[in-house]
Amino acid sequence: MEKLKIRTNNFVILLIIFILMRPTFAFFSATLGRLSDLVALILSILAISIMRKRIDTKLIKNIQFISYIFLLYLLIMNLSYFVNNYFLVLSFGDLSEYARPFIWFCAFMVGYIFVINDYTFIKAIKTLSIIGFIHALIGVVEFILPHYGAIFYKIFSTSNLFYQHRAGGIVYTHTEYTVFSVTCALLSFYMYSITKKKYHVFFGLFTFITSILSFSKAGFIFFALVGASSFIYMLNYQKKSYKILLLFVLAPIIVYIAFLLYEYSSMLNAGYEALINYQTTSNLSISNRVDDIQGVFNVISNGDYRIFIGSTPYHINNKLSYIEISFFNIFFRFGIFGVVLYYLIIFIPFIIKKNKTDILESHIIFLLRLIAISLFIVDFTANVSETIKFSFLLFLLYGMTYRLAINKRSQVAQNTHANK
Description:
By secondary structure, the chain is mostly helical. 73% of the residues lie in helices and 0% in strands. The protein contains 18 helices and no strands. It has helices spanning 2-21, 30-50, 57-61, 64-84, 99-114, 118-144, 150-156, 159-164, 174-195, 199-209, 217-237, 240-264, 266-276, 284-300, 306-309, 326-346, 359-378, 388-419.
């Protein structure tokens, strides 16, 4: 029985690795990228099916509230599809928007069912941190040796990243590269706080430092928000000697990052200057986003039903079929109801009860809450939370951590009962 559990756990870990490191071939066609996402959904369902014997009534009862939020979000999607179908000719391709909440929920369930104890939780976190390190290595190869790294662009990313000389790693876009890297770097630092094995510090520093090689403006905001907050948090929890070491490590990192930003990123600098000086038409990246925001408000300002349930889920003939800012994209497609439910799902870590005395639990919950807040902020600047591989990683972590917290509470209750 124990050997069967080990085999199941190892197979699920392999599925998680493949889902996150699967080829997308979006370099050649967006359709191939969508098919790759469909494969990720199918493999997630397969992972849940393999672990189905672990599912019981109590396990389902503990996630009722989260399940209701997902169901309400799907209800708003259905309502938007149904109503807008009378005004627009929707095609089969328009149904692709359904994939996102299903992938999110399946990723959550994979993590939630997988974590049966502390060992399986740590094993999964370690795996994810190694994936992040490999992702960063690929990004460095792409940046330093772009011609040799072209193969990675063709396997994992879009053609834009290759021609713009931006790191892509194992993900679609430049912004996703940074948020994926930063999240995995935090997992490496978290692993060090638990195991005290120094190679996790190397993994974390390497992944964190190289996360800026995408030169994404939104990614850099995420990098700065998460980096500064987690560093302050680490200082509060480390001994005096480690605080001095951290400060010495941080100084050259800041210098190195400043050099890279100054030396290599005229695109990043030009974008910020255009935004600060309100010269929105001088930079295409900024002007596209401003046009999107204006377009959304032009539709919503009519004051009809669309303010509540959105204008259209996804329509290729619509001028606003692709909106480069996640918050306004969801607002446009699913209205006020949709955007509120969407970010309720993003803020799942805030409904997890944290035990401050348990380091394994409290540290990871803090980091996920920090990521959720930073994600909400950068969603006002670019498409971040909608990215598939990063969102799978995020909701996998949500499910794992939610189950970890439940396991800890059960252990405390059992110990209390035994002492009576």
